[in-house]
Amino acid sequence: IAALAMLFDALIIITTSILSGVLYNLVAFGRTGNIEQLGGFAAVVAVFFFILVKNGELYTLRELLNLKSQLFRITTKWLGVFLFITAIGFTAKAGDLFSRGATLSFATSGLAALIGARLFWRMYLANSLTVHRFSGRKVILIAEQARADDEGLTETLLRHGL
Description:
This protein is mostly helical. Helix content is 72%, strand content 0%.
């Protein structure tokens, strides 16, 4: 699931960068703009974003199911990446190479798309666990004695694919 979620996020980042940049440039200037530059900028954003998200372990099953945590952490990491890249661009005096409008539209549409992806993952994974889509592994549970409060243990194990 983690690799699939990362691939999905990469596609979202690249697609939203190119689409928002092209749409902004069409509306503002009547031309599409430099698509290679938009894609390159998206690649840089994606690398920094994945470093932060992977280190924060946001692609684990437990974390993907925790929607509140995902929304907060994805938002802070996404904004942190854009603040960092803006600081680098300002320091390197490369701000005139990038359209502020295209960058802002990418930042907002990219964040909205990533939040939408987190909503999708939450619903998909919760539903999959409910209908035992990940079932199949056999386990043996060895315990000293059965307790009356462990009645839901079998259902919990089944739901998590065991």
